[in-house]
Amino acid sequence: MDSTKRGKSGDPDIIKIKRTSTPDDVASVLLKERERQGVYGAGREVNSTAEQEEEDAENEDYDGDDTGAKDEDNGEVVDDPEEDGGDAEVSDGDQKQQRRVSYGFHLVEGKMKHGMEDYLVAENRKMDGHNLGLYAIFDGHSGREVAEYLQSHLFDNILSEPDFWKNPVTAFKKAYRDTDGDILENVVGARGGSTAVTAILIDQKLLVVANVGDSRAVLIQRGKVKQITVDHEPEKKEERDLVESKGGFVIKMPGNVPRVDGQLAMTRAFGDAKLKDHITVEPNVTIEKIDKDTDFIILASDGLWKVMSNEDIAECITGLEHGKKAAEELITEALMRGSPDDISCVVVRFH
């Protein structure tokens, strides 16, 4: 079942919090919304009760045993890949899964005046005999058009790359570049862009993650957090050097964050044609093995990370049994801490 969701101003799945709300007001709104819906999470994940029941059954029982996949042993998936450049060939070997996986997502519109600009993807897909979990956060800026386009096209572009199974890092990077070219030509003008953090879980064993911008992905393994993406912020020396090597500059105005050419608070993004000569869409790509010690995968926009550390995330959701509940709890905590931005979150839970 396709569980793709997006954020959009006026969408009934978005909870609006007044700019004057106190923490107690926020808690009250979330409690009332939870009681109204009778499901995990203040943000509805499906469009009807029937769909909710179907999705719960699919997510809770998703163990790969009904796919006709091979049951042989010794299918080595990856040979010690290195971060950002360690291509790995995916094997057709052992695909029988022993663990169940649930996933959930939640998003709320922030207190800004621009309307909701976060979009996300959470979807199971079968391809070439493999079970794929597709998860992503797209945090738009100066408009929602780029984020919306990414939601509809980026995963299809990645998976259609001929080298995807043998060289996923190469495939991700090429798909990011090609998709950005389509966006610059057909979608957006001088202004408007989006972050992207995309994760593909292959047979519950191999996770390939790519990102541009400041949306982030982390793993929780036995209660310990591992950040698996890079925040592309202008204040970091490597990112500043990248901008300056392209002829741009980074400046921080009083009371503000460092910005590329005084405008963009990240060094890598889709779109942003006006700044494209000085920024890049080249993602960092990481390949991770998923094993019995892995408990959660979390993807979220910077509306969450601005007010919560990686360790805060682990403490907030450790012990929760469903990805849906975990996503709700994270956003509830971020709101209680005063995050004013749009917040979107996807949580994958291994049982």
Automatic annotation (TrEMBL):
<comment type="similarity">
    <text>Belongs to the PP2C family.</text>
</comment>
<feature type="compositionally biased region" description="Acidic residues">
    <location>
        <begin position="51"/>
        <end position="66"/>
    </location>
</feature>
<keyword id="KW-0904">Protein phosphatase</keyword>
<dbReference type="GO" id="GO:0004523">
    <property type="term" value="F:RNA-DNA hybrid ribonuclease activity"/>
</dbReference>
<keyword id="KW-0378">Hydrolase</keyword>
<keyword id="KW-0464">Manganese</keyword>
<protein>
    <recommendedName>
        <fullName>protein-serine/threonine phosphatase</fullName>
        <ecNumber>3.1.3.16</ecNumber>
    </recommendedName>
</protein>
<dbReference type="GO" id="GO:0004722">
    <property type="term" value="F:protein serine/threonine phosphatase activity"/>
</dbReference>
<feature type="region of interest" description="Disordered">
    <location>
        <begin position="38"/>
        <end position="100"/>
    </location>
</feature>
<dbReference type="GO" id="GO:0003676">
    <property type="term" value="F:nucleic acid binding"/>
</dbReference>
<feature type="domain" description="PPM-type phosphatase">
    <location>
        <begin position="102"/>
        <end position="350"/>
    </location>
</feature>
<keyword id="KW-0479">Metal-binding</keyword>
<keyword id="KW-0460">Magnesium</keyword>
<dbReference type="GO" id="GO:0046872">
    <property type="term" value="F:metal ion binding"/>
</dbReference>
<feature type="compositionally biased region" description="Acidic residues">
    <location>
        <begin position="73"/>
        <end position="92"/>
    </location>
</feature>
